Amino acid sequence: MSLLTSSPTIAFVALGSNLGDSQRVLREAMQRLQAISRQPLVQSSFWQTSPVDCPPGSPPFVNAVVALVPVAGETPESLLVKLRAMEMEFGRQPKEVHNERVRSTSI
Length: 107
Description:
alpha+beta
């Protein structure tokens, strides 16, 4: 019986990156998501898409979707907290402008 044909609760998580080695970032994110799933992830292919509503010159996005079965006791709220923490660990900064692109600077 596969993840999508069984009856457990399933969470779908959309992934996307357009800075740095985006495919590597998505693979690492998938590994991290596996740690909070009771069953193997179901993963889409990677898709490259053009940026929409982003500043001019923004690089293309690499996107994917995973389906996971949250570990026992996980709630939608606790899963969201973990996903947001994971975003921060991957370097996502809170944005004040929708689809804002942040450039790193060196001193």
